[in-house]
Amino acid sequence: LKWGIAYKHAANLAKLPLVAAIFVTGSLAMSNCKKSDDIDLMIITYPNTLWITRFITNLWFFKNRRYPKLKIAPDKICTNLWLDTRNLKIPDETLYHAHEILQAKCIFDRGGVHYQFLKQNSWVKNYLPNAYHKSFENLKIKNLKLIKNYKLKIINYILFGIQYLYMRPKMTTERIGLGYAFFHPKNFSS
């Protein structure tokens, strides 16, 4: 049921041309989630579009998203990790993070993002070399396309500022920047 929900929402979100890739992460990616679990998604956008995409996504998932104060949110969408294609490297090189990177399941890839994500995080082979090399099976190698639009860049800066000011009083261990947002401190961030 949860995989069906994830694919349905990913298909809708993929209609937005700013989305480069969508991954399922967390317990669903390992197919060992509970009925009460939410659905964790990692969204990868093109450069200078992350905060535009996040704004649209939050509106899109308004009824179906997990809100921070909810302890239990069965089948709700939790977009707790955002990266743009210039910020694909996960900075925390630990066994835990290597495992999280390799267990992430790509359910939408506009062209070569999954491959680039693995290449940018090649440090994981220091911990899990066999799993790292196996991850490249059946992946298509493509060059990432970039969207160059200065109007989008300006809008992205504005929406980053608005969203950051809204989140700032509530922030604890989250890591936020123009090209990344780690909302789940345990996964992919220190």
Biggest sheet strand order reads 4-1-2-3-6-5
* Outline type: globular
Helix content: 25-40%
Strand proportion: 15-25%
- Rg on CA atoms, Å: 16 Å
The secondary structure category is alpha+beta
Poorly predicted runs are none
- Averaged pLDDT: 89
- Put simply, the count of helices is 7
The count of β-strands is 6
H/E element string?
HEHEHEHEHHHEE
End-to-end Cα distance, whole Å, is 32 Å
Main sheet characteristics: 6 strands, mixed
Short recap of the structure:
By secondary structure, the chain is an alpha+beta fold. It has helices spanning 2-13, 26-29, 50-60, 95-103, 113-120, 129-134, 150-167; strands spanning 19-25, 39-45, 77-84, 105-109, 175-177, 180-182.
Can you walk me through this structure?
This protein has a six-stranded mixed beta sheet, with helices on both faces. It has helices at about 1-15, 25-30, 50-60, 95-105, 115-120, 130-135, 150-165, and strands at about 20-25, 40-45, 75-85, 105-110, 175, 180. The protein has about 190 residues and is α+β, with helices and mostly antiparallel strands. Helix 3 (about 50-60) packs across helix 7 (about 150-165).
Based on the model shown, name its key terms:
single chain; alpha+beta; 36% helix; six-stranded mixed sheet; 7 helices; globular; 190 residues; 6 strands; 17% strand
